[in-house]
Write a structure and sequence with these properties.
single chain; mainly alpha; 10 helices; 75% helix
């Protein structure tokens, strides 16, 4: 077993934020591709397949990647970690499918709140259970308050989009076509909540696997293999029942979702050993909000609003994450 040394918080947290910056870019791309193809499963297949090609090339070309490849089968055969961890890529497949299928219905704003809520709650649970390589981490009152503030701040940051679409029946939170009432939103809303909830478990599994593979490159590759198998199987069933969707677009940028996934899956697998699942997830949430804000300013989508609440909510999110991640002494809340 070979692994890199643990990173200090001041080094690891900015990396987690940087990894989170890739999530809204991937969401924008996969959501647009799902709409263009009129097929969320096909868009997820494209995203995961391009990511798999990138990871195969990295694993074969880099010495550290080749070394990680050589350790995958021995680690699995020796049961160095539960074999079900190899299937963590299936969670990533669910997340990408949720992006492709629901962003066009819910809008980026509601999708973000749903995934952040699920991920923040499960981050506390996973750290409490000690599933990740960082071991058990206590659920302190300050961490709980920080997580609740994070969810509230994210909701505040995206509230201008809700207000803009609030009086228009049949419109999503981002001004796109959407369902006609709250009841019709229930199933599309539960999907990103579930995907966000399971993301913390995926990060914990990948982090544990990375410790035994010696590199996050191998863990990320295994994720894309497992996710691609799941998605191609689902797509084959879908085509046999309903036929294929629209043809693939010619624009090159539709195919960047997979490489974006390589960034945040790989960095997540690297960081959970040092930071724990909750702190890694909160850092990615901060990056996700900052990236969304940057996209809305530089490359705004139709219906985009950058209001004071958006900026202030993003700042409050960063403050809440700092509250939850600082090494407060025991009993600090009581004092």
């Amino acid at each position: 077993m070979t692994s890199s040394p643990r990173l200090p918080l001041l080094a690891g947290l900015p990396l987690a934020v940087g990894a989170g910056l890739a999530i809204p870019v991937q969401g924008r791309i996969n959501g647009a591709l799902g709409t263009r193809l009129n097929d969320g499963i096909a868009a997820a297949v494209v995203s995961f397949s391009t990511g798999l090609v990138v990871m195969i090339l990295i694993s074969l070309l880099l010495p550290r990647g080749r070394a990680g490849l050589a350790r995958i089968l021995p680690a699995v055969r020796s049961r160095a970690f539960p074999r079900i961890y190899v299937l963590a890529g299936g969670i990533g497949a669910l997340f990408v499918f949720a992006q492709s299928f629901t962003v066009g219905i819910l809008g980026v704003a509601l999708f973000t709140v749903a995934t952040v809520t699920g991920q923040t709650v499960s981050g506390l649970l996973v750290d409490k259970l000690g599933i990740g390589p960082a071991g058990r981490k206590p659920v302190t009152a300050i961490r709980v308050i920080g997580c609740l503030l994070t969810i509230a701040a994210v909701a505040w940051a995206v509230s201008p989009r809700f207000a803009a679409a609030g009086g228009t029946p049949g419109m999503s939170a981002d001004g796109g076509a959407g369902p006609d009432g709250p009841a019709a939103l229930l199933v599309p809303l539960l999907l990103p909540v579930a995907a966000g909830f399971l993301m913390s478990f995926q990060q914990a599994m990948n982090g544990t696997a990375t410790v035994h593979y010696g590199t996050p490159i191998a863990a990320t590759l295994v994720n894309f293999v497992a996710g691609s198998v799941v998605l191609w199987t689902a797509y084959a069933v879908k085509v046999s029942v309903a036929g294929p969707g629209n043809p693939l677009p010619a624009e090159w940028w539709y195919y960047l979702g997979g490489p974006m996934g390589c960034v945040f899956i790989g960095l997540g697998a690297l960081l959970v050993r040092s930071l724990g699942v909750l702190v890694t997830g909160l850092g990615m949430i901060a990056g996700q909000l900052l990236g969304s804000l940057a996209l809305d300013v530089v490359l705004p989508a139709p219906g985009t609003i950058v209001a004071p609440a958006t900026v202030l909510g993003t700042i409050l999110t960063l403050a809440a994450i700092i509250l939850a991640t600082l090494p407060w002494p025991r009993g600090a809340l009581r004092r």
